[in-house]
Design goal:
Helices cover about 5% and strands about 50% of the residues. With about 725 residues, the chain is mainly beta. The protein folds into 7 domains: about 25-135, Immunoglobulin-like, CATH 2.60.40.1220; about 140-210; about 210-280; about 285-355; about 360-425; about 435-500; about 515-715, no CATH class. The strands form 14 sheets. It has a 16-stranded parallel sheet that branches. A hairpin with a 2-residue loop joins β6 and β7. The relative contact order is 0.05.
Length: about 725
């Protein structure tokens, strides 16, 4: 038996160091990727699995290598096999793992090799190097020319023979020309579809449009149409339309006349600036004036007038009449009247008989009213000045009847019979001020039973122990105390107090898991508008990995443009974190619907509906105060939406940190224009950062997209 075992051992493992021991020869039984694999991801981790446990000390960068290129059947290097791939080698259980230091090159053959230096626990070596090859996935690179000509989408990695679509969108002032590859035109359609055969490097070519600018001389002479941007080689048509009293003369460009036709069409081979010239008609417009029971003086008094000329009309009534108004092509009751001649005009001067038509009756209890002029009747359109004078101990308050207001003297225009009352109130005994103050008290200064109209009263709110003053309601608003009230009517005012919340302490933080590696994590892609968007941290979406308008230059971190498994694992971690936040209830504090103007200590804040930050100035700022505890945690849980208004902000105080703030939103979150926000947003649906919004935290949404517009996100 010993002889037979020895023979098997020597023929199977003849290179073993320990000749007196018999063991199974170590073999590589499987690899990842498998031999001859294609379309291998660029971030692939390479591994080899043995049939038995190996000596970890022999699994090193010397015994397990990966190189760029392939080998021949005889095991010799190919011409390309001279580039070693840098990476780290680890061993666990039966598997040796090679992790490249940087992504693999696209559409490239790589060779993995486990050398005979690898030995098992009996120090038995592989009998020969184990060698296998694989090919990485192909890549499409796209870029615009010129860089400002437009935007392109479609770059990424793709399986060989798969269909790929790239799309070019021209910027304002540019037009798409064609797609080229290595100087050759491959498509003239802005959307180009092709089958993958190796790597592709495509350039979208754009041409700048010509711009036509038009103006008129003089500016009031007429209107012009036809300005805009046009493609090279196209024609432009501009049209000049003169105003009344003007005639079109010609089109000029610089000092040159280019056309005497009002409609001018010309091919474009450059941008152009055209001027439409108009001339004023000398004579033509008539002015007819009718004046019954009076006369009208025209200055100047001509038979016809030029377009744009001004004429002054002065109405003079006959004896016993008064001028009241203009009608026809002019209105108003002012004489003299200046008329601008821009068309033929017919104007009537209206006069009424003095002192024989309209009555004005004034009632004035506890005072008197002076009428100026003081007549029995007034002509239609006449004006009367009323001055109210209160009796001793009274104050004038208002007019009522056929006029309203509280101004004295008052000018009344007589266009009908009028009945007017002047109202007066007793000083110090008229208007009441009732104040309600539950859970506190209010000091009135002065503290009177009644107040005169126009008097001012100062209200100071003082809360009971355990409460704090929050706002005024009823006939007063705001949250400022003391409050000054002007007495112009009876008033009912309520001082509102709420319980002063005692902080139960910080809750435990939310474990984001691998989702914490991302500044943006979405369920259905990321959409960006604006080239100034800047993100510090990784960006990914799963299962829909669409990135619209977001380029690698916008991201300081990894921009995942495919549905990478790493992003999928992060999405799973996000769901776990979101469910944790939504399940919290211990020591919950009621979360108001409006957070602006508040200062909140660490804790769990809950609102079953919606919440947000609105208002301006101090009322648009939410302060989070950690009280000196750098590990303080805030969790804000709401059942529906969370919205911040434009220009609102969050301020951190007392050592508070953005990484310890969690906003768990039941549906969607929106950050307003130019707003500043801190914390990790965990939304079930979408997250939107409107123009210029800044987020010091993370935008993590489970189902829908994250939308950006010239936004800044910094992962804490």
């Amino acid at each position: 038996m010993l002889v037979i075992a020895s023979v098997v051992f020597i023929s199977g493992c003849k290179k073993d160091d320990y000749q007196e021991k018999i063991g199974v020869c170590p073999l590589v039984v499987s690899t990842i990727p498998i031999d001859k694999a294609i379309n291998v991801p660029l971030n692939q981790i390479i591994s080899a699995t043995f049939n038995e446990k190996m000596n970890p000390a022999t699994i090193t960068q010397e015994s397990f290598t990966v190189q760029q290129g392939a080998t021949t059947n005889a095991g010799l290097k190919s011409a390309m096999l001279d580039v070693a791939v840098a990476g780290t080698v680890t061993y666990n259980n039966l598997t040796a793992t090679f992790t490249p230091s940087s992504p693999l090159l696209p559409n490239t053959v790589y060779t993995g090799r486990v050398k005979t230096a690898a030995k098992d626990l009996l120090n038995q070596a592989l009998q020969a190097d184990y060698v296998w090859t694989f090919t990485t996935i192909a890549q499409v690179l796209v870029s615009p020319l010129p860089l400002t000509g437009g935007t392109i989408i479609g770059a990424g990695t793709f399986n060989q023979e798969s269909q790929v679509t790239v799309t070019a969108t021209a910027a304002s002032g540019f037009v798409f020309t064609n797609w080229t590859e290595n100087g050759t035109v491959v498509s003239t359609n802005s959307t180009y579809q092709f089958a993958m055969v190796g790597n592709r490097v495509l350039i979208a070519n754009f041409s700048q449009q010509y711009r036509v600018i038009i103006s008129s001389l003089p500016d009031l002479g007429g209107t012009t149409t036809g300005a805009g941007s046009f493609n090279p080689g196209s024609s432009v048509t501009v049209t000049a339309t003169p105003n009344t009293g003007y005639t079109f003369v010609n089109w000029t460009e610089g000092i040159n006349i280019v056309s005497t036709e009002a409609t001018y069409t010309s091919p474009l081979n450059a941008s152009r600036t055209l001027v439409a010239n108009f001339a004023l008609n000398i004579i033509g417009l008539s002015l007819d004036v009718v004046a019954n029971n009076g006369s009208v003086l025209k200055n100047p008094n001509l038979l016809t007038y030029s377009n744009g000329a001004t004429v002054v009309l002065t109405a003079t009534p006959n004896s016993g009449y008064i001028f009241t108004s203009w009608s026809g092509d002019a209105t108003g009751s002012v004489s003299p009247l200046t008329v601008t001649m821009n068309s033929n005009k017919n104007i009537t001067a209206n006069f009424a008989l003095i002192g024989s038509s309209l009555s004005l009756d004034v009632v004035a209890n506890n005072g008197s009213v002076l009428k100026n002029p003081d007549l029995l009747t007034y002509a239609n359109g006449a004006t009367v000045v009323l001055t109210a004078t209160p009796n001793s101990g009274y104050i004038f308050t208002s007019w009522s009847g056929d006029v309203t207001g509280s101004v004295s003297p008052l000018t009344v225009t007589m266009n009908a019979n009028k009945n007017i009352t002047a109202n007066f109130a007793l000083i110090g005994s008229g208007l009441t001020l009732d104040v309600i103050a539950n859970n506190g008290s209010v000091l009135k200064n002065p503290n009177l039973l009644t107040y005169a109209n126009g008097a001012t009263v100062q209200l100071t709110a003082t809360p009971n122990s355990g409460f704090k003053f929050t706002s005024w309601s009823g006939d007063a608003t705001g949250s400022v105390s003391p409050l000054t009230v002007t007495m112009n009517a009876n008033k009912n005012i309520t001082a509102n107090f709420t319980a002063d919340i005692i902080n139960p302490g910080s809750p435990a933080g939310i474990d984001l898991g691998s989702a914490g590696n991302f500044a943006i994590l979405a369920g259905s892609g990321v959409s960006n508008t604006g080239v100034t968007t800047h993100i510090i941290g990784d960006v990914g979406a799963f299962p829909t990995a669409t990135m619209n308008g977001l380029l690698a230059g916008n991201v300081d971190g990894i921009l995942y443009t495919a549905a990478d498994p790493i992003v999928g694992l992060a999405k799973t971690a996000l769901t776990t974190a979101y469910n944790d936040a939504q399940s919290r209830s211990l020591n919950a504090i009621s979360l108001p619907g409006q957070l602006g103007g508040l200062t909140l200590a660490p804790g769990l804040y809950v609102n079953s509906s919606t919440s947000g930050i609105s208002g301006t100035g101090a009322n648009g700022i939410l302060t989070l105060d950690a009280g000196g505890d750098a590990n303080a945690v805030w969790i804000f849980k709401m059942g529906s939406t969370f919205v911040t208004d434009a220009g609102t902000s969050i301020v951190l105080a007392g050592g508070a940190q953005a990484k310890n703030i969690y906003w768990s939103v039941g549906t969607s979150a929106t950050l307003g224009t130019n707003s500043i926000f801190y914390g990790n947003i965990l939304a079930d649906q979408a997250i939107t950062l409107t123009t210029g919004a800044t987020l010091y935290g993370r935008a993590l949404t489970r189902i829908a997209a994250v939308t950006l517009d010239s936004s800044t996100i910094t992962k804490p």
